[in-house]
Amino acid sequence: MSAKRAKQAKTQDNGLLMTKPMRVRTYFSISAIFVCLVLLCCQLFRIQVLEQDYWQKQAVAQQLSDVEISANRGQIYDANMSVLALTREVCTIVMAPCNIRREVTREKIADELSVMLEVDRSTLYQQTLDSESQYKVVKSKVDKSVGDTFIEWVNENSLGGVFRIVTDYKREYPLKNTLSTVLGFVGKDNVAREGLELKYDSVLSGTPGRMVAAQNTYGDHLPTSLQYEYTVDATDGNSLVLTVDQYIQQVTDKYLAEAIEEYGARNRGCAIVMEVDTGAILGISTKGDYDPNDYLTIADPSTAEKIALLAGEEQSAAIVKARLEQYRNKALDFYEPGSVFKIFTASMGLEEGLVTEESPFYCGGMFHIADRSMKCWVHPNGHGQQNFITAIANSCNPAFMTLGTRVGTKLFSKYYAGFGFTAKTDVDMLGEQDVTSGLYHLPESISQVDVAASSIGQTFKVTPLQMITGISAVANGGYLMQPYIVKQVIDGDGNVVSNTQPTVKRQMISESTSGRLCAMLENAVSSGKIANAYISGYRVGGKTGTSEKTETKSEEDQDQNVQVIASFGGIAPADDPQVAVLVMVDEPQRSRSGSAVAAPIARKILKDILPYLGVEPNYTEAEIAGLDRTVPNVVGATVAAAQSTLKASTLSAQTVGNGTTVVKQVPASGTSIPKGGTVWLYTDNRETQTATVPDFTGMSVAQTTQAAKAAGINVLLSGISTTDGTPAATRQSIAAGEQVAKGTVITVEFTYTANIY
Amino acid sequence: MASYGSEAYDLSMYEPKARLRALPGKKATKADKRRARLQKLLNTLATVLVSSVVLVVIATMISSQVRLTEMNSAISQAETAYNEAVGETKRLESELAAQTSAQSVEEYAQSAGFRQVESGQIDYITVTPITPKAEEDTGLWATIIGALKAWLQ
Fold it and tell me: Do both A465 and A560 map to the same domain?
């Protein structure tokens, strides 16, 4: 400080050492500090008070790591605890291309990993070139075994900095297409997308757990012993046990798929088997379906081919449409039931006393009401004079339209709603749509003409599930049950969490009416009218249906070109119904009637499942006489003794050789053989004589037997009823032209060609 | 001492400090010296004892931490092994379900030459239902006579 300035300061401040500029600066500094402090306090107030929650969260997020612990998704079992869907741990392989330095390494990765992980080499190589990226998924959902091999490969090549494995989960459906339209699927993002997986997602998925732990600057967990960790365990999802039996399902799938293929159905088909007393669904099949393990692939090859020809947005739209279509459960789609609905018209008439078994009906091929004329499917001659039992067997339209008009609009609407056709069944499956007023005639607006048309199952729509639920009600004494498919919910240890109890909605007809109707339905099959549903030893009752798809009918279409839905609704055994079956084939091309297309499927299903369900056959005298025989063992016996044994079994013998003792026989003992079949006995070691299998397709029973006899082979006739009819061979167990040993038994399947619509 | 309030201008801290003068005290006796030595010894012992305790406690803590870490590691390994086993079980379960499905069994049976059982291969037998016969009430005398007869035989 200069002497002059010091003197000046001393003069001005009365002896203080501070000069004026110093004082100004001091005040300025103090003011600035004060302002800063005020600002700091304001900021502190904002952070600590006003925005407390936000900053608290930020701090927690920075200091604590919050990891979700996945809950194991529950499994889905069939009624016998066979696994239908399960989740297992897999891994996803992730690459950090930014850590790849050399071209040689890129080449090596592309060459070796593309083979190991079965991925496209060029795609993988392109991924390695993205030197900015730290995260490229090489392959997701890789099996643990492949993951282990991959880890070894990574360690061998010192590529630990390039690759890492992320734990992932994969939902698997071991039975592939089986029940796929019902089960739905879980997407690759582990989110339930369709079917029971989505409907019961909250039950199956469980509750994820959380692990909150303190982390250091690098994001690593601090030691757990420091008690900075807080874990809430995940609660695993519960499992579902379905009412569906895998065997019944497989049988249903198999025969429906065969029929779809055989009759060239253009719009898929479905079949349902229901326990009539409970409403439990034992089997439910839709074909064509898809494999939920590969749900993005279009399962139908012809659709896939058509889509492949498209391009751009059109192709994308077609893919989406095709996928949604294959995911649909056809049992929940609306259709016109056709003559199968006559079961309900009959039950209305019987219950209200408007008709009896012997009530006369006349069919002249046409039914006239108001200004409308409606044809019988037997037109123009008609069925003539008939009683009600015969009218059901004939599926006579005028008879049922007459009955419908007797029932009247009020009662018809009452029963229609009562059998559950105006509301959803509330089945525990995904995809059941609301029954809107446009699908049926409302009670306030229904006319007698509407009732007449509705009496034969036309002018309204129902779902196959509604139909089989109604048929079960007719069969079980009139009780309309709520259908269900989930029998139980169980936890991970197998403890039962909840049980589904059969629910009776209401009683629609008396037990007496139910019994009378079942007998009439049985007569329709056993009388030979629906002989394709006949099973020797079992009393099967049923009704066929063939409904025209009016929405696809163009003005130019002639009757023969109109697409139809062929269906059959049946019950068995008719004297004590246990199961109901409904088969529906949409737009069959090679045959049209319900009796020709759907009834044989129902017969095959019932023939396999009735013994499985423990329903014993009850043969009539005629059936016993026609039963196949079992070939006895005659090897080692003398020729005379063998012939005698075979004769006792109503079989004949054809001896080959000069020996006296049988050394070989065809067919072998235990084989099923028709009554009167021939067993070839070889008395020395000469070569077995062979025959060429004839082509039996289209042959009648007599022609088949004759051709088989000429060729020296035995035929088992399948699908033949004891009544008269005109069956024709449609399938044979060994293909035509093959060489077989003489005496071999070939099963030839027959279908009755007479159509009942 | 300077009269300024700010420490930066407090020049007194650079002024020479007044020397502390020892207070006049009593002259230490022999007993005092002995007591002081004993006290020193006790202090040393106490220090050693406390140090030992502290050391033991620290060693125990370290040891338990080591044990805890080892156990955590073992638990982690066991959990990993368990999870792997669960995963493998699930994989096998899935494979088993696929291989033992009704469809697979049928296909396998057909490839092995088996055929589905035909109705003619089943022999049904009729069993007459046996109605349990109620024991006849023979009466007291008949029972006694019967018992006597049995005894005599």
Answer: yes
Question: Mean pLDDT score of chain A, rounded to an integer?
Answer: 89
**Is a pLDDT exceeding 50 seen at residue A24?**
yes
Select from A520, A538, A573, A536 the least CA-distant residue to A393. Answer: A520
By the 8 A CB rule, do A500 and A242 touch?
no
Same domain as A346, residue A466: yes
Number of separate domains in chain A: 4
Residue that the structure tokens 């023979």 belong to = B138
**Tokens of residue A704, six digits:** 């088949």
> Does residue A668 form part of some domain?
yes
Query: Based on the domain organization, do A543 and A657 belong to the same domain?
Result: no
Q: Return the structure tokens found at A257.
A: 């798929």
Determine, yes or no, domain membership for A45.
yes
Closest partner residue to A672 (CB to CB) among B86, B97, B121 is B121
In the structure encoding, which two tokens stand for residue A155, read together? Answer: 């360690």
Contact A271, A259 (CB under 8 A): no
Q: What is the pLDDT of residue A353?
A: 95
In Å, how far is B121's CA from the nearest CA of chain A? 6
End-to-end CA distance of chain B: 142
> Where residue A442 falls among pLDDT bands split at 50, 70, 90?
very high
Q: Which domain holds residue A149?
A: 72-205
Per-residue pLDDT tens over the stretch B79-105: 888 888 888 888 898 899 889 888 888
3-state secondary structure of A192: strand
* A74 within 8 A of A197, measured Cβ to Cβ: no
Domain boundary among A176, A205, A234: A205
In a domain? residue A312: no
Q: Which of B103, B108, B127 to mutate against chain A (most A CBs within 10 Å)?
A: B103
Q: Please report residues of B whose CB lies closer than 8 A to that of A144.
A: 84, 87-88, 91
Mean pLDDT, range A196-225, rounded to an integer: 79
- At A273, which helix (H) or strand (E)? strand A269-275
Give the closest-approach CA distance of B134 to chain A in angstroms. 31
Q: Which amino acid is at A699?
A: M
Strands (E) in A483-535, as ranges, are 486-490, 496-499, 504-507
| A427 and A496 share one domain | yes
**Same domain, yes or no, for A630 and A614?**
no
**Cα–Cα distance, A480 to A416 (Å, whole number):** 12
- Determine how β-strand A83-95 pairs with β-strand A136-142: antiparallel
- Which domain-ending residue is among A566, A601, A618? A618
CATH code at A109? 3.90.1310.10
Nearest Cα to A144, choosing from B90, B77, B93? B90
Nearest CB among A88, A627, A628 relative to B90 is that of: A88
CA distance A536 to A583: 20
> Do A475 and A430 fall into the same domain?
yes
Bin A611: left if φ > 0, else alpha if -120 < ψ < 50, else beta.
alpha
Task: Test B120 with A247 for CB contact under 8 angstroms.
Answer: no
Backbone φ and ψ for A197, nearest 5 degrees, come out as -55, -40
Query: Do A604 and A484 fall into the same domain?
Result: yes
The three-state secondary structure class of B11 is helix
- Do the chains contact at A172 and B119, CB–CB below 8 Å? no
Nearest to A83 among B68, B87, B94 (CB): B94
Using CA atoms, how far apart are residues A246 and A76, in angstroms rounded to an integer?
12
